[in-house]
Amino acid sequence: MWENPNPKYLKMELFDVYPLMDITPVAAHGCYITDQDGVEYLDLYGGHAVISIGHSHPHYIRRISDQLERIGFYSNSVINPLQRELAHKLGEMSGLEDYQLFLCNSGAEANENALKLASFATGKGRVIAFSKAFHGRTSAAVGVTDNENIRAAINQGQQVTFLPMNDASLVEKELAAGEVCAVIIEGIQGIGGVHVPDVAFMQDLEKLCHRYNCKLVLDEIQSGYGRSGRFFAFQEANIKPDIITTAKGMANGFPIGGVLISPDIQPRHGMLGATFGGNYLACAAGLAVLEVIEDENLIENACKTGAYLDDELGKISGIKDVRGRGLMIGLEFEDDVKSLRTRLLKEKHIFTGVSSTNIIRLLPPLSLQRGQADVFLEAFAGLLAP
Ligand SMILES: Cc1ncc(COP(=O)(O)O)c(C=O)c1O
């Protein structure tokens, strides 16, 4: 019998890339998570803006379970009516009925396809992105992400110019230099620290992209699907981007990504593709999310509860800046927030997110109720009181 000469390798271990919170969730309902000791936590992080309709929503469970009983997967070589149903519902609810939908599996993959599409459509290869941008970790997506630490040598080939946000004259200068296929921008910058681009800047970007035959790509992966209090955050500026990418909140945790493509970009067979993209279960999950958002007026709730939180947080002293829109809120502090977040978690049983070292990010389910917001406000004010 074969004997392993190095027993150290007997058990496969995980590739250790994630700094972990010392919590093991075993159940979750609505805006709450329960750990293995039965402790309940208020979830203001939503697994990184993913939980849009609340954990374990009964309609969501039913729709996915029913679908699984019938057919869970087949490849994109057959007709899957759920894909068209999802596209129709998404078009109707976002007000973008004239767009086309390409389905994939994650945010990075959506951006990868969006940039490729912009390059196909214009025949050009340079991209303009913005300081502090995060667009994902795959090749083209990480190339337009403003973080040297996550870019490997193999990702250095991309032709990208990073510019400061909200300066349209710099964008025009770069476009005039030629060969730019895409300008990519987040609807609201997430990982960069919840920075909302100026409405006038977004409108300038739309005009400039048309003038220089370049595609405006709106990354709504974190800010979309109702989080900002509108279906997509860019809709505040009343513009029509050429390409919009979505993922996180789209299926409440079931892996999915989407690229919404304006009608003047023509598809051709083989141009894009993905084995798992738009599978039956992903579509059922995506439809369930849209149905719950509609039935429970969750976009209106995100707008109202977000405005309430914003007002009340503005009254708490010790916070340097409160920014964002709807239920995408950044709380900037002078100092590191690590111990504040740990105390929120361990003493108050509240999950929050973070950006950089000094910004707390709130990305709760869009179903967060005012009473739950009050639980957080009281706990937070208590921890910040001198
Ligand atoms: C704005 C934005 N774009 C893209 C991504 C990448 O998404 P994924 O992790 O699904 O690849 C993220 C993830 O945090 C994001 O916040």
Describe this structure in words.
With 386 residues, this protein is an alpha/beta fold. It folds into two domains: 25-53 and 297-384, Aspartate Aminotransferase, domain 1 (Alpha-Beta Complex); 58-295, Aspartate Aminotransferase, domain 2 (3-Layer(aba) Sandwich), CATH 3.40.640. The chain contains eleven helices and 15 strands. The chain has a seven-stranded mixed β-sheet, sandwiched between helices. It has a four-stranded mixed β-sheet with strand order 1-2-3-13. Helix 3 runs parallel beside helix 8. The longest helix has 17 residues, at 298-314. The protein is globular. The termini are far apart. Residues 106-108, 111, 134-136, 186, 190-191, 219, 221-222, 247 line the site of pyridoxal-5'-phosphate.
Beta-strand residue fraction: 15-25%
Mean pLDDT across all amino acids: 96
Please identify the structural class as seen in this structure.
alpha/beta
Provide the list of bound ligands, each named once: pyridoxal-5'-phosphate
Helical content class: 25-40%
| Uncertain parts | none
CATH class of the largest domain: Alpha Beta
Any idea what the CATH superfamily of the largest domain is called? Type I PLP-dependent aspartate aminotransferase-like (Major domain)
- Describe the strand arrangement of the main beta sheet, using strand numbers: 4-10-9-8-7-5-6
Short summary of the structure?
By secondary structure, the protein is of the alpha/beta class.
Please specify the SSE layout and strand pairing.
Layout: E1 25-29, E2 32-35, E3 40-43, H1 46-49, H2 58-70, H3 81-94, E4 100-104, H4 107-122, E5 126-130, H5 139-143, E6 160-163, H6 168-176, E7 180-186, H7 199-211, E8 215-219, E9 243-246, E10 257-261, H8 280-295, H9 298-314, E11 321-325, E12 328-332, H10 338-346, E13 350-351, E14 353-355, E15 359-362, H11 370-384
Parallel strand pairs: 3-13, 5-6, 5-7, 7-8, 8-9
Antiparallel strand pairs: 1-2, 2-3, 4-10, 9-10, 11-12, 12-15, 14-15
The structure holds pyridoxal-5'-phosphate (PLP).
